[in-house]
Amino acid sequence: GAVVSQHPSRVICKSGTSVKIECRSLDFQATTMFWYRQFPKQSLMLMATSNEGSKATYEQGVEKDKFLINHASLTLSTLTVTSAHPEDSSFYICSASGGFVDTQYFGPGTRLTVL
Amino acid sequence: AQTVTQSQPEMSVQEAETVTLSCTYDTSENNYYLFWYKQPPSRQMILVIRQEAYKQQNATENRFSVNFQKAAKSFSLKISDSQLGDTAMYFCAFMKHANAGGTSYGKLTFGQGTILTVHP
Fold first, then answer.
1. Residue numbers in chain B where pLDDT is lower than 50
2. pLDDT of A2-20, one tens digit each?
3. What pLDDT, in 10s, does the model give residues A82-106?
4. Which of A25, A84, B101, B104 has its CA 20 to 30 A from that of A8?
């Protein structure tokens, strides 16, 4: 099956710094990638949708200047949390799909802790 | 907008027994997909089963089957012969079909999740 990786799996940073999370499709070309946020024992909340070569579409309430998404190639999307604060601490998950977005493959997630 | 509701925050079942997880949804769309995802303690999301709304036949995948009631907007998951490895959080999810058009195609709307514990 299709594999999606995320790096890093865990990151701890100081308040005010920026953190970049990578999402890679390892064995297929991902035309669309999705970024989710999940708090402990809660559901996944979609943050944004990115299509290769175009600007990401953000969900209502998600600050696009705080959560920068880049989908520069068919195998890589990045989420940068700028000027991170403790309330940004969460589990971030990406998913990727090829030609048909009805089949999405999820990455293993990244746990971000902001001190 | 679509909503997905899972009314059972937690469920437990004995190994080898059968358990059913409930899911209801609300949509004005006629064509859509429904999914059940499993998230074990590793937190890796795993697709369990998928149903296309235009198909009347309930989807099955080995020990997992669904009861899809389109008119009632209900999509329950039955796990037969439960195994310890089935212990996980289960999410029901909705996605509009490509033919529905608009910008929300491909977006998954998740329910709140049900924590399932399988006891030996």
1. none
2. 899 999 999 999 999 999 9
3. 999 999 999 999 999 876 667 889 9
4. B104
Please name the residues in contact with A61: beta carbons below 8 A apart, sequence gap of 6 or more: none
Q: Are B34 and B86 in contact (CB under 8 A)?
A: no
Residue count (chain A): 115
Inter-chain contacts counted by CB atoms under 8 A, chains A and B: 52
How far is CA A49 from each of CA A94, B40, B42, rounded to the nearest angstrom?
10, 25, 24
Report the DSSP pairing between strands A4-7 and A10-13: unpaired
Q: CB B113 to CB A93 under 8 A?
A: no
Average pLDDT of chain A is 92
State the Cα–Cα distance between residues B36 and A105, nearest whole angstrom. Answer: 13
Of A57, A91, A97, the CB nearest to B103: A57
Q: Is A108 on the interface with B (CB under 8 A)?
A: yes
What is the rounded distance in angstroms from the CA atom of residue A18 to the CA atom of residue A67? 10
Which pLDDT score, from 0 to 100, does residue B105 have? 64
**Cβ-contact B79, B19 below 8 angstroms:** yes
Closest partner CB to A108 (pick from B44, B95, B106):
B44
Confirm if B92 and B64 have CB atoms less than 8 A apart: no
| Angle at the Cα of B35 from the Cα atoms of B6 and A8, rounded to 5 degrees | 95
Q: Does residue B73 come out as left (phi exceeding 0), alpha (psi in the -120 to 50 range) or beta? A: left
* Paired residues of A67 in beta bridges: A81
